[in-house]
Each structure stands twice: as structure tokens, then as C-alpha cells.
């Protein structure tokens, strides 16, 4: 006899894996878009505001993947957490690409 047939409440999984992956995906897309935008704005900014743009570009490029990895780790989605951590290599890629395109 199952617990539901015995009158007990059925044990349900309260995690929402699709919602967690959508959230991690949105954070990943924001990382992929806003990191290079902040870096390009820092390169083109004057000496007065370049530091702020470098800080914003770096914090978006590193902070959002770490946030996504933390969310997916707590939710128990190891694959999404690994993909989120893989985004930490993205700043190296776009910095090199921007300097090669500008040079």
C-alpha cells in the first residue's frame, strides 16, 4: 500500500528544475551580453569614468555566473551549476576578442 492510499500526503518534489534552469539561463545571457558591453564602454570612456565601467563589466562577468552556480547548486542541478561555472572563462574570451578587433 502506497502512502497516498494509506491516507498520508504524497511526497512531492518541491523543486522546480525548469524554473531554476530558466533563471540560470537568464543570468548567463546577461553575463554574455553585459560583460562585453561594460568592457567596451570602459575602453571608450574617459579617464574619469573608466574605472566604474571596468568594475561593472567585471562584476557582471564574474558575479552573475557565480550567482547562477549558487542557485543551481542549492536546487541540486549539478549540470546547470557546471555550465554556470564554465561561464567564468567568458571574460578571457571577450577581452582577447575585443583587443584583437581593435588592434
TrEMBL record:
The keyword Transmembrane applies. Keywords: Membrane, Transmembrane, Transmembrane helix. It comes from the Bacteria. The chain crosses the membrane at residues 18-41, 53-75, 82-102. The keyword Transmembrane applies. This is Uncharacterized protein. It comes from Streptomonospora nanhaiensis.
